[in-house]
Please model this.
Amino acid sequence: MILWIVALVLVLAALLLVYLLKGIVDAARTIEHRVEAIAGVAAAGSKDLDAVIELVATQSYIGQVVDGLANYGGSLNAALPDA
Amino acid sequence: MEPAVLVIIVLIALIVGALALYLGMTIRALLKINQGLGVALVSVGEIASKTAPVNGVLDAINATLLAGRNLLEGLFLQKAGPDAAGLVESAFPGEGARFLARVGRRGEVVHIGETYPRGEAILNSLLGAPPPSAAPPAPVARMSALGTRPWER
Model:
């Protein structure tokens, strides 16, 4: 009789174990899909940032424009009377 | 062997089998997660390296623009004098008061309008052109006639 009770407990334990393990596997698979999505977004973001290096050229252009403005200002300073 | 013992042995075997199966599936999923994180980490590293110089470049751009703005504002103040804030206000509505604050002046900002008669007269004299026939008086002249200039109040 005791052995049959042990067997019944084992059956219940097996069912609970399968339920819990299935939950772990499902959660791990969900994470897997999310990580794949994150990797895709990160790759796309990295590709979008390829143009950031152009900022260096922009910096150079802005320097040239400000130099031009300074020269223009110098000419105006010489040409126009003070207030 | 008793049937109950046989059933227990079979049940234990089933439990061990289920454990092995599900743990194997979990390990496989974790390995895939690890692989995916490795791929994501490479892209994140690329993002970090690509954005690293942005702060320095933007700071340099801002410093250059600020120097240019200060230069032109100083020149503007020197040449247009008290009309400078009004001219700035005419070109960039709402900016006249900020201009006054930046150059450390106080007073009311008088909107100059579409034309600036004093500047027009200076340009005409430089170019040798006749002065405009019906030019309205400059705000400076009007305020001078009243005896008080808004920026000196």
About this structure: Chain A touches chain B through 48 residues (CB under 8 Å). The CA atoms of residues 1 and 7 of chain A lie 10 Å apart.
